[in-house]
Write a structure and sequence with these properties.
The chain has 126 residues and is an alpha/beta fold. It is 37% helix and 33% strand.
Length: 126
């Protein structure tokens, strides 16, 4: 399986997924014109990865902001990860948020309530 790297822009996050190490990073702002189209390569990569995942998959979410359509796509990504986790691979989601950003903390807590994967809330000091 190949690494997936999508360079970020002012409207889209950087996405780095390395199936060899089981590491996924989503970082930046997520307000793409078409969220479904933007996240499709990652969802497809996770589908492929779910066939033979690493014993541990580490996910780092470091988003400054995301819009409503992105939140649905991020949930789709988490659902793929939830399946990988329920199939016996350990998945850990590190949800990074700035110390004064209550909205991002709450967003992470909302996902945590929906998805059956351990979340670590990590405060970023400014």
């Amino acid at each position: 399986m190949e690494k997936l790297t999508i360079e970020g822009s002012p409207k889209t996050p950087t996405i780095k997924f390395d199936p060899e190490t089981g590491k996924l990073l989503i970082q930046g702002r997520s307000i793409p014109e078409n969220s479904i189209e933007f996240y499709k390569p990652l969802v497809d990569s996770l589908d492929n990865y779910s066939g033979s995942p690493k014993a541990q998959t580490n996910v780092d979410i470091v988003l400054e902001y995301f819009n409503t359509s992105s939140s649905k796509c991020i949930l789709d990504v988490f659902k793929k990860l939830e399946k990988i986790n329920s199939d016996g691979s350990d998945v850990v989601i590190n949800w990074h948020y700035e110390e004064d950003d209550e909205d991002m903390l709450e967003a992470g807590e909302d996902y945590q309530a929906i998805i059956n994967i351990p979340f670590k809330m990590i405060e970023i000091e400014e």
